[in-house]
Amino acid sequence: MKHAIYTLALGFGLSAMATTATAACYVDYKAKKDNPLKLHYGVAAVPDGACTSPRAAAKAIAPRLSAAGWTLLNIVSLFDDSGLNGRKANAGPYFLRF
């Protein structure tokens, strides 16, 4: 009986981990570079903790963009895996780059 309970508990634990592992968070954003002016629209993955608000997402992605010489202009939206395919073509080379 104990073995069956442990097996069930392990099964529930693994299924819960699998569910949280697939629940990713993404943002689409706009960024710029100066001299000469360049603009881009991109999509980036952010940690779950940064998926609570656009401000939190901006804090997560701005340093990554800055390291490549880009300045974050704004976060357009926050979304999960279901929104990725519809944004891939628009983001072009900036799809999941930063």
Offer a quick outline of the entry:
The protein has helices spanning 2-22, 54-67, 84-91, and strands spanning 25-33, 38-46, 71-79.
Give short descriptive properties of this protein.
alpha+beta; three-stranded antiparallel beta sheet; 3 strands; globular
Q: How many domain modules?
A: 1
Count of helix runs: 3
Distance between the termini: 50 Å
Order of helices and strands: HEEHEH
Low-confidence stretches: 4-10, 12-21
Label the overall shape: globular
| Broad structural category | alpha+beta
User: Biggest sheet, open or closed, and with what strands and sense?
Assistant: 3 strands, antiparallel
Residues in β-strands, percent: 25-35%
Account of the 3D structure:
- This is DUF4177 domain-containing protein.
- Keywords: Signal.
- By secondary structure, this protein is of the alpha+beta class.
- It has one domain.
- The protein contains three helices and three strands; from the N terminus they run αββαβα.
- A three-stranded antiparallel β-sheet has the order 2-1-3, sandwiched between helices.
- The radius of gyration is 18 Å and the shape is globular.
- About 17% of the residues have low confidence.
Blueprint of the fold:
Layout: H1 2-22, E1 25-33, E2 38-46, H2 54-67, E3 71-79, H3 84-91
Antiparallel strand pairs: 1-2, 1-3
